[in-house]
Automatic annotation (TrEMBL):
<keyword id="KW-0456">Lyase</keyword>
<dbReference type="GO" id="GO:0004640">
    <property type="term" value="F:phosphoribosylanthranilate isomerase activity"/>
</dbReference>
<keyword id="KW-0822">Tryptophan biosynthesis</keyword>
<comment type="similarity">
    <text>Belongs to the TrpC family.</text>
</comment>
<dbReference type="InterPro" id="IPR045186">
    <property type="entry name" value="Indole-3-glycerol_P_synth"/>
</dbReference>
<feature type="domain" description="Indole-3-glycerol phosphate synthase">
    <location>
        <begin position="4"/>
        <end position="251"/>
    </location>
</feature>
<dbReference type="GO" id="GO:0004425">
    <property type="term" value="F:indole-3-glycerol-phosphate synthase activity"/>
</dbReference>
<dbReference type="InterPro" id="IPR013798">
    <property type="entry name" value="Indole-3-glycerol_P_synth_dom"/>
</dbReference>
<comment type="pathway">
    <text>Amino-acid biosynthesis; L-tryptophan biosynthesis; L-tryptophan from chorismate: step 4/5.</text>
</comment>
<dbReference type="GO" id="GO:0000162">
    <property type="term" value="P:L-tryptophan biosynthetic process"/>
</dbReference>
<dbReference type="InterPro" id="IPR013785">
    <property type="entry name" value="Aldolase_TIM"/>
</dbReference>
<keyword id="KW-0028">Amino-acid biosynthesis</keyword>
<protein>
    <recommendedName>
        <fullName>Indole-3-glycerol phosphate synthase</fullName>
        <ecNumber>4.1.1.48</ecNumber>
    </recommendedName>
</protein>
<keyword id="KW-0210">Decarboxylase</keyword>
<keyword id="KW-0057">Aromatic amino acid biosynthesis</keyword>
<dbReference type="Pfam" id="PF00218">
    <property type="entry name" value="IGPS"/>
</dbReference>
<dbReference type="InterPro" id="IPR011060">
    <property type="entry name" value="RibuloseP-bd_barrel"/>
</dbReference>
Amino acid sequence: MNILDKIVADKHKEVALKKNLIPIQQLEKSVLFEQETVSLANSLKNSTTGIIAEHKRRSPSKAVINQKVSVQDVAKGYETAGACGMSILTDGKYFGGSLDDFLLARAAVNIPLLRKEFIIDEYQLLEAKAHGADVILLIAAILTKEEIKSLSQFAKSLSLDVLLEVHNQEELQKSIMPSLDMLGVNNRNLKTFEVSTEISKTLSTQIPDDFVKVSESGISNVEAIKDLQQYGYKGFLIGENFMKTENPGQSAIEFLNKLK
Ligand SMILES: O=C(O)c1ccccc1NCC(=O)[C@H](O)[C@H](O)COP(=O)(O)O
């Protein structure tokens, strides 16, 4: 079994347990559930930099990245830097994240927040909404076309933006549908962990103009962004490059200063 299959198998068990612990009605009663969302897609469209900065303590490909920094400090640093949005890993087992991290970031900043999760069930979208998310991620590699359609439509009914992630042509072809706001190309093959921004370039011409194009993973310098902008990319998801430093917020500030 590859790592992605393992993550998804664990996620099914986790969601089944949570559904018994916290009923949907309780999620819907959260004050944040009623909060108006801010569109990441609009923020990217209006930006010349397009950085979505990520909070990521560890990962299957890199083990520990940063266990020391506080999520609030990271969030405030990213907002000060001028990031268009922040992505927060909420998976505990493989990434060391949590929904508590999400709440702390929500309380600290006003920029759009993306719940970075392995979404396989509508319940996780209600959780995202109840914790103040503006955007959710759907990963084509772990969902059927029908699941992408129903989950994205449900997310839109909750006023959440949808970022759909692909890694190859087949995933892209099954995913193009009007209930998505952004199409992300993950430069990391989630089964082998190989990383190359070439895949963003190759798939760029096949992404219709109606979607905001986002390039994800393995971006570590301003030159890579300038290059990807030539292929129509408006958003750039960066995690490790900031998180591996002692002060991720400060690293984002320096990075964006070079980009502006
Ligand atoms: O990062 C991993 O090792 C990983 C492994 C398996 C599934 C997902 C994984 N990462 C999620 C992401 O897509 C990245 O966190 C995100 O795009 C940022 O990437 P990076 O800038 O390379 O940290």
